[in-house]
Write a structure and sequence with these properties.
With 357 residues, this protein is an all-alpha fold. The protein has helices at residues 3-11, 17-32, 47-62, 69-72, 76-100, 104-115, 118-129, 154-170, 174-196, 205-229, 238-253, 260-280, 283-304, 309-343, 346-349. It contains 15 helices and no strands. Helix 10 (205-229) runs antiparallel to helix 11. The two termini are 28 Å apart.
Length: 357
Amino acid sequence: MTNADLEALEQAGLIDAAKRQEIAAFLAARAAAPQSPVAAPAPRFDLTHVLWYAGALIIIAAMGIFTTDAFNRMGGWALTACGVVYGVALLALGDNFWFRRNLRIPGGLLVAAAVSMVPMIIYGVQEALGLWKVAEGGPGQYQSFYAYINASWVYMEAGTVLAALAAMARYRFPFILLIAAVALWFMSMDLAMWYTATPDSYSDFETRRIVSLWFGLVMIAAAWAFDVLKGRLPDMMFWIHIFGILAFWAGMTMHDGANEFQKFLYCLINLGLIAFSLFIDRRIYAVFGGMGVATYLGYLASDVFKDMLGFSFALSAIGLAIIFLGIWLHKNRARLASTLNAALPAALQSLRPADVR
């Protein structure tokens, strides 16, 4: 807003001279205040954004998950050189897009892909110098990093987390935090194997499940805390909320041998996720909560009430009611949020992100 705009407002009688001076002083103070770091726009999944993310994920997968045996036969120093060349090239291109072309989403994705080269670089150095003896033994080929748990991967994971944090200091792009979160998730399971390793460690699914569940809870808590405390900072926790609920929900859902009460408790927790979604205004929790409730209802249909003809009709009616409830919530979300704010005590209101209070 310029001085000419303020003058026009005064001449139209919308503000007086004193109010005009007050607004001018406010705008001047705001312009002089230090600005928060520039972040990428919030993720949007139209065709352009899908292509950007798909391209970055293909690069990350090609140089990690889908490396071949021939790739591993290059040797340690060749792997290191390959990782460095790829990483530097991706980083340079991403930096150019971010700062010179103002293409922050493709630029940030290229930086994230550069960070994902760090495990290859560290693996190559360890392989070339024979450093596995100071780890927990040779973990096998590089491509196994994404498929198997082994305590020797911890150094690669720690390096990836540090590289992601360093990148975040320059590029405020939330997807980079997802790379760090995946590395931390791997690290949590590899450290668990470090301290509980047995001859049957690779088939110890229950330990992995429990670690994943608790790791997801920690990620959710950290993302929630950031949302509450961030103030004017941009939303940086989009991917951490997604990854946190995925790890937690998968760990909870894959529990085998639960009794009837535990399965009912599972349904209640998923209903709680739907309520939590409204509380912090993150729809992803409602998505997973809804899938969990559907999973429990599917169990009831296939096991508990399989011989009751009316159960399928009753379940269809419940599904239809849920659809209409979703429509009603969509139309009245703002009013419900306002009512929720008025009804909640101050202590609970303080646990909601500032932009949804």
